[in-house]
Amino acid sequence: FWMKDTLIPLSIAFYDRRGRILRILDMAPCRADPCRVYDAGVAYRGALEVNRGAFRRWGVRRGSIVRLRR
Predict the structure, then answer these.
(1) Which tens digit of pLDDT belongs to each residue from 49-68?
(2) Phi, psi for 22 (deg, rounded to 5)
(3) pTM of the predicted model, to two decimals?
(4) What is the distance between the alpha carbons of residues 44 and 15, in angstroms, rounded to a whole number?
(5) What is the H or E stretch that residue 48 is in?
(6) pLDDT digits (tens, 9 = 90+) for 7-24
(7) Is the CB of residue 4 less than 8 Å from the CB of residue 35?
(8) What are the sequence ranges of the domains in the chain?
(9) Nearest CA to 1 among 43, 42, 34, 47?
(10) 44 Cβ neighbours under 8 A, 6+ residues apart
């Protein structure tokens, strides 16, 4: 993931097939190349992006379980 031309800072949570949060990173906007690449560093199933700091405010951390509705 990268933040090229993104206007606001975001947090990203990478999760596994069971919905367990593996890693959370805070990401900063990037206006010009080269932009930093944000990598989970582990195999993951998906990722959720929210306003930066929202996971912290909600008490979501590594090991938390997310449930996504279809």
Answers:
(1) 999 999 999 999 999 999 98
(2) -95, -35
(3) 0.91
(4) 6
(5) strand 46-51
(6) 999 999 999 999 999 999
(7) yes
(8) 10-58
(9) 47
(10) 14, 15, 16, 22, 23
> Could you tell me the end-to-end alpha-carbon distance of the chain, in angstroms, rounded to an integer?
23
Q: Are 22 and 40 in contact (CB under 8 A)?
A: yes
Q: 15: which 2 tokens?
A: 């999760």
Q: Would you mind telling me the total number of residues written for the chain in this entry?
A: 70
Question: What whole-number distance in Å separates Cα of residue 9 and Cα of residue 4?
Answer: 11
Element (H, E) at 23: strand 21-27
Contact 27, 70 (CB under 8 A): no
